[in-house]
Backbone:
């Protein structure tokens, strides 16, 4: 089965009009690249980060000051996250403007879920440094969550104590490093599978 | 809920079992910690005339000539904790301004601050949050 998979990784036939650079502007592939960068730099950061309210900020300072390349890795994570969201928005814009969502509805919905999950991942990552910006941004974001349908339940699940409390921080951490990335990768692969099915061109392939 | 249940056939009741793991998960995710619903501050701790803020509980006690007023100092816009500067509540997030009566002087907040119930007992002020 594995051999078959490798065999079919590259498309047997590609439509010539799909190979034009301006057809997709490579935006989806670039945002996937940003996601890979995020995973790599994120794993490196997770080696030093301590998800505990009093130590979180100090561990960030430790990464920046005492770790070779720590500042670089942290900024890489930050810039990649910005790039990821911007590229995704541009990708959505491209899909809207070319009307691609009309003919490939299934993938359009998957893509929207990917967009929302990515924004949510960005939001959960915002709290982790535990500085003033993190605290207030999470506070305001949590008020916005409350407005959603069943918002109070979601809020109670995400913030069992207070914003920036022990349980809250470790919950955001779990969401940020495990649950949401796994969901995003799974949906991405469904997304790519559908692209391939619809005779599109995949990133790197 | 009642309507949903009445549509359910007797035979298909067991189909609802798939909800059980989710209910269990929800229960698991909400720990059993008692949240205290009041705070107690000794009256002597209050300034003679001014504001006493308990920021981690989002509560502000204002004392002036007319007496004591207790506010929830969560900004009514997006819930940031207000600071007091020059007889005004100022929000650090988006700059809403409230007067010491709790009414809005400057947006983006639209609603006035919420008054909190309190009582005075044995030289302590007890605020229900």
Residues:
């Amino acid at each position: 089965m594995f051999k078959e998979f490798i065999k079919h990784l590259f498309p047997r036939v590609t439509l010539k009009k799909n190979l034009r650079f301006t057809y997709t502007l490579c935006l989806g592939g670039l945002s996937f690249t940003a996601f890979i960068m995020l995973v790599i730099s994120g794993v490196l950061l997770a080696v030093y980060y301590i998800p505990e309210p009093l130590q979180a900020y100090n561990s960030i300072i430790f990464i920046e000051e005492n770790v070779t390349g720590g500042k670089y890795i942290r900024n890489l994570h930050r810039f990649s996250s910005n790039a990821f969201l911007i590229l995704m928005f541009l990708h959505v814009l491209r899909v809207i403007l070319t009307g691609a969502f009309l003919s490939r509805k299934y993938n359009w919905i998957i893509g929207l879920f990917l967009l929302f999950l990515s924004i949510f991942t960005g939001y959960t990552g915002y709290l982790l440094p535990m500085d003033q910006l993190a605290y207030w941004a999470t506070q305001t974001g949590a008020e916005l969550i409350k407005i959603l349908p069943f918002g109070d339940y979601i809020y109670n699940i995400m913030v069992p104590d207070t914003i920036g409390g022990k349980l809250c921080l470790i919950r955001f951490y779990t969401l940020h490093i495990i649950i949401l990335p796994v969901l995003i990768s799974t949906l991405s692969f469904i997304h790519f599978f559908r692209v391939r099915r619809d005779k599109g061109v995949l990133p790197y392939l | 809920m009642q309507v949903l249940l009445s549509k359910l056939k007797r035979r298909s009741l067991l189909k609802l079992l798939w909800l059980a793991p989710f209910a269990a998960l929800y229960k698991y995710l909400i720990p059993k910690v008692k949240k205290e619903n009041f705070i107690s501050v000794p009256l002597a701790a209050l300034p003679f005339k001014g504001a006493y803020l308990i920021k981690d509980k989002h509560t502000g006690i204002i004392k002036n000539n007319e007496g004591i007023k207790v506010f929830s100092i969560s900004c009514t816009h997006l819930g940031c904790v207000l600071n007091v500067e020059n007889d005004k509540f100022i929000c650090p997030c988006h700059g809403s301004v409230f007067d010491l009566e709790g009414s809005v002087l400057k947006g983006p907040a639209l609603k006035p601050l919420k008054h909190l119930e309190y009582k005075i007992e044995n030289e302590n002020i007890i605020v229900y949050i």
